[in-house]
Design goal:
With 278 residues, this protein is of the alpha+beta class. It folds into two domains: 144 residues, Probable tRNA modification gtpase trme, domain 1 (Gyrase A, domain 2), CATH 3.30.1360.120; 82 residues, Aminomethyltransferase beta-barrel domains (Elongation Factor Tu (Ef-tu), domain 3). Helices cover 15% and strands 33% of the residues. The strands form two sheets. Strands 1, 2, 3, 4, 5, 6 and 7 form a seven-stranded antiparallel sheet that branches. It is globular, with a radius of gyration of 20 Å.
Length: 278
């Protein structure tokens, strides 16, 4: 049987370094992951508002003398400005200027994007081009569709100042047993009383003649638009299909797999490959 060639996700992301003996403690108090006791070389975590809303999806590389913070989704300048504001004079913590880093990760269609560990190359690394040319890289359109299937949130779309990481299927990026961090009280409350109001879902349009001039991003229970069941957050149109992400009210998730959009017509919804729900 012929081997199927592995596929890879390559993308440039903003990053910055955090150095100093208090670097781990500092990040541990801001993000949802356990930075102090992690045994992994790379972990994914979230930066939240005090009310538990997702502001950024980040990745942290544990190096010998520093932590490298990769901004997978979020506003880099906002993050650096906030981090600098809350460094106390007594803290031994120093942030570098932001730069770009090349991130490469193996992917597949049936496992979460969190399954495979990424590798990184600085933009001036001479080995990067040699390594990259040996890989079967997803083209931009296929990458966009794969990210939708994985429900990877994007800034100004799913990361919009309203959604929390549990609604976005990112429960595994939150350590509920560690000490205090920004947004912890809200996260604990939601988990303990299972009070999620909505969940992220993939949707796919069954129709192809669309009215893209319409600005109504609501999803309805039927074409009569009697009841709004959620809201579209993003979409991507390829040559053969239209798919996207939406936040669906939990009480309507058992109503069936079909809903209606004034823009996209009849749509089918499914859980994503990459999301983990309460």
């Amino acid at each position: 049987m012929q081997d199927i060639k592995k596929k890879f996700w390559l993308e440039k992301f903003d990053c910055f370094s955090i150095t100093g003996k208090d670097a781990r403690k500092f990040l541990n108090g801001i993000t949802t992951g356990n930075i102090l006791n992690s045994e992994n070389k790379v972990i994914k975590t979230c930066w939240l508002t005090p009310n538990g809303v997702l502001r950024s999806l980040i990745e942290i590389i544990f190096l010998e003398r520093s932590l490298e913070v990769i901004i997978l989704a979020g506003n880099t300048n906002e993050i650096i400005d906030y981090f600098n504001q809350i460094i106390f004079p007594a803290d031994d913590v120093l942030l570098s200027e932001p730069s770009l880093i090349n991130r490469i990760q193996e992917i597949d269609e049936s496992n979460s994007w969190r399954t495979y560990q990424p590798i990184f190359f600085k933009t001036d690394d001479k080995e990067f081009e040699i390594y990259k040319n040996k890989l079967n890289l997803l083209n931009p359109n296929d990458l966009k569709l794969w990210k939708i299937n994985q429900a990877i949130p994007s800034l100004e779309m799913e990361i919009n100042g309203k959604n929390n990481p549990l609604e976005l299927g990112l429960q595994d990026l939150i350590d509920f047993n560690k000490g205090c961090y920004l947004g912890q009280e809200t996260m604990s409350k939601i988990k303990n009383v299972s009070s999620l109001k909505q969940e992220i879902r993939i949707w796919k349009s069954i129709e192809y003649n669309l009215n893209l001039d319409v600005e109504d991003k609501n999803l309805y229970i039927n074409s009569a638009k009697d009841i709004s069941v959620g809201r579209i957050t993003s979409f991507f149109k390829s040559d053969c299909q239209i798919k996207g992400l939406a936040m669906i009210k939990r009480k309507y998730l058992e109503e069936g797999n079909y809903f209606f959009s004034e823009i996209f017509g009849k749509i089918i919804i499914n859980k994503s490959v990459g999301s983990i729900f309460l």
